[in-house]
Amino acid sequence: WMSDDEAHVCPLCSQKFTQIRRKHHCRQCGRVLCNKCCNEKVPLPQMGFEDPERICDYC
């Protein structure tokens, strides 16, 4: 799980985080990404999440 303080840019699109481009955690891999790259929501029952959770484009 990556700390918010460690993330300055989205690892997928390389865009800098700002007040408008906010940080989101992928519940699958734990990386911090922007909304554009971490917008999909799916259930992750293997991780104990029955309700849809946010995952990144990579996962």
Characterization of this structure:
The structure is a single chain. With 59 residues, the protein is mainly beta. The protein has one domain: Herpes Virus-1 (2-Layer Sandwich), CATH 3.30.40.10. The protein contains no helices and 4 strands. Strand 1 and strand 2 form a beta hairpin. It is elongated and about 30 Å long.
What is the arithmetic mean of pLDDT?
95
The CATH architecture would be: 2-Layer Sandwich
Instruction: Look at the helices and sheets and give the structural class.
Output: mainly beta
Number of H- or I-type helical stretches: 0
Q: What general form does the structure show?
A: elongated
N- and C-termini, Cα separation: 14 Å
List the helices and strands and how they pair.
Elements: E1 24-25, E2 32-33, E3 40-44, E4 49-55
Antiparallel strand pairs: 1-2, 3-4
Domain FYVE-type: 4-59
GO molecular function: zinc ion binding
Keywords: Metal-binding, Zinc, Zinc-finger
Brief write-up:
The chain is mostly beta strands and 59 residues long.
Comma- or semicolon-separated keywords:
two-stranded antiparallel ribbon; mainly beta; 59 residues; Herpes Virus-1
